[in-house]
Write a structure and sequence with these properties.
six-stranded parallel sheet; single chain; seven-stranded mixed sheet; 12 helices; 13 strands; alpha/beta; Rossmann fold; Dihydrodipicolinate Reductase, domain 2; 2 domains
C-alpha cells in the first residue's frame, strides 16, 4: 500500500478522499486543515461517514515526511511552493492541485498571481499533468502541476488540431461555463445562493488566470505562439464545465480531417471520448467521473471549427486527474479508482 497525505480540506480535497477511499493501492494516512483541525473529515463531509473518518491535523511537514510516500496539495495559490520544495526534496512525490507550478514563465506567474515564485528551479522541473499529452514525462516526475479545470477541457479539445496544423493559431475563442464548486468552499458574496440561483454571468473577463495556462499549452501543441480570447461564465449548478471553442481551418485543410485528428489522438485513451457526429456533450453525462466528452462541428462553407468539451470540474478538472497522475507516478493502472462512468440522470 502507498501511504498518501492530502494537504487541504476544500472541495477538491474532498473529491480526492472520495476517490482514494476505493483505491486498492492507497492507505490514506493524513489530511490537513487550517480551520477544521481536530474534526473528522466525515464531520465536514458527511457523505464520507463510515468510509473515511480520519481526524484532520495541522500541516506538520516533519510528521508528514515520516508518514507518507506521496502528497496531494489542494491549497490556494502561493501556499504550495515551500511545502512542495520540502516534501519533494525528502523523496515524497507531490501532485499540486493548485496553480503554483503550472505556468513555466516566472514573469507570467508574477503578472497573474502577483507573487514572486520562490523556486523557479522546481517550476522548471514540474511536469504539467495532462496524462493524455505528457504521460511519459509524468511517470518519472517528482512534482506534478495538476492542470486547472478550465484549461483541461480547452486543451484536450484543441491541442490535437493545433498539433496537426489544422486550425489557425490566431482568433481562437474559448467560452466556458462552470458550476459554482469551481470557486471553492470559502465564503464569498459572489457564490451565495441568491447571487447565483436563476442567474448566468461572465466573470474574469479578459483577466482570468487560466487564460495564460491555456495559451502556454496550446502554444506547445502548435509549436509557436497561440493567443486566445477566454471568457468563463458561472452557471447555477454545483459541478461541471462546458467549454465551447471556436477556431478557423487553416488554408487547404479538409473539414473531415478535424474529426479524424481528434479520433486518432484519443482512440486509445480511457478517459477521453470523441462523440459521434451530430452529438454534443452535456455536463450531466460526465458528472462525478474522470471522463471528457468532446463533440465537434465544422462548417465547410466558412471553415469555422467548433469544439465542445464537457468535464466534471472537481474530478477530471481536479481530483480525478490528480489520481490519474498519481497512478502513473507509481506504475499503477492509470484507471485505478477512476473507472466509474458519469452519474446519470
Amino acid at each position: 500500500m502507498i501511504r498518501v497525505a492530502i494537504i487541504g480540506d476544500g472541495y477538491a480535497a474532498a473529491d480526492l478522499v472520495r476517490i482514494l477511499s476505493i483505491h486498492e493501492e492507497v492507505e490514506l494516512v493524513a489530511i490537513t486543515s487550517v480551520d477544521n483541525v481536530g474534526q473528522s473529515i466525515s464531520e465536514i463531509y458527511p457523505s464520507l461517514t463510515g468510509l473515511v473518518d480520519i481526524t484532520l491535523q495541522e500541516t506538520d511537514l516533519g510528521k508528514i515526511k515520516l508518514q507518507a510516500e506521496a502528497a496531494f496539495l489542494a491549497l490556494p495559490h502561493g501556499l504550495s511552493v515551500p511545502i512542495v520544495a520540502e516534501l519533494a526534496e525528502s523523496g515524497i512525490k507531490c501532485v499540486d492541485l493548485g496553480a503554483d507550478f503550472r505556468l513555466k514563465d516566472v514573469g507570467t506567474y508574477k503578472k497573474h498571481y502577483h507573487l514572486e515564485h520562490e523556486r523557479p528551479d522546481l517550476l522548471a522541473e514540474a511536469v504539467y499533468g495532462i496524462p493524455e499529452i505528457y504521460r511519459d514525462q509524468i511517470k518519472g516526475a517528482r512534482v506534478i502541476a495538476n492542470p486547472g479545470c478550465f484549461p483541461t477541457g480547452a486543451i484536450l479539445g484543441l491541442a490535437p488540431l493545433l498539433r496537426a496544423g489544422l486550425i489557425s493559431t490566431r482568433g481562437i475563442i474559448v467560452d466556458s461555463k462552470s458550476g459554482v464548486s469551481g470557486a471553492g468552499r470559502g465564503l464569498s458574496r459572489n457564490t451565495h445562493f441568491c447571487e447565483v440561483n436563476e442567474g448566468f454571468k461572465a466573470y474574469g473577463v479578459g483577466t482570468h488566470r487560466h487564460a495564460p495556462e491555456i495559451e502556454q499549452e496550446l502554444s506547445v501543441a502548435a509549436g509557436g505562439k497561440v493567443a486566445i480570447t477566454f471568457t468563463p461564465h458561472l452557471v447555477p449548478m454545483s459541478r461541471g464545465i462546458l467549454t465551447t471553442a471556436y477556431a478557423e481551418l487553416t488554408p487547404g485543410s479538409a473539414p473531415e480531417k478535424i474529426r479524424a485528428a481528434l479520433e486518432d489522438s484519443y482512440r486509445d485513451e480511457r478517459f477521453v471520448k470523441v462523440l459521434p457526429a451530430g452529438t454534443y456533450p452535456q455536463t450531466r453525462w460526465v458528472y462525478g467521473s474522470n471522463y471528457v466528452h468532446i463533440g465537434v462541428h465544422v462548417n465547410p462553407d466558412d471553415g469555422r471549427v467548433i469544439v465542445i468539451s464537457a468535464i466534471d470540474n472537481l474530478t477530471k478538472g481536479a481530483a480525478g486527474q490528480a489520481v490519474q497522475n498519481f497512478n502513473l507516478l507509481f506504475g499503477l493502472s492509470e484507471s485505478e479508482a477512476l473507472k466509474n462512468p458519469g452519474i446519470y440522470p
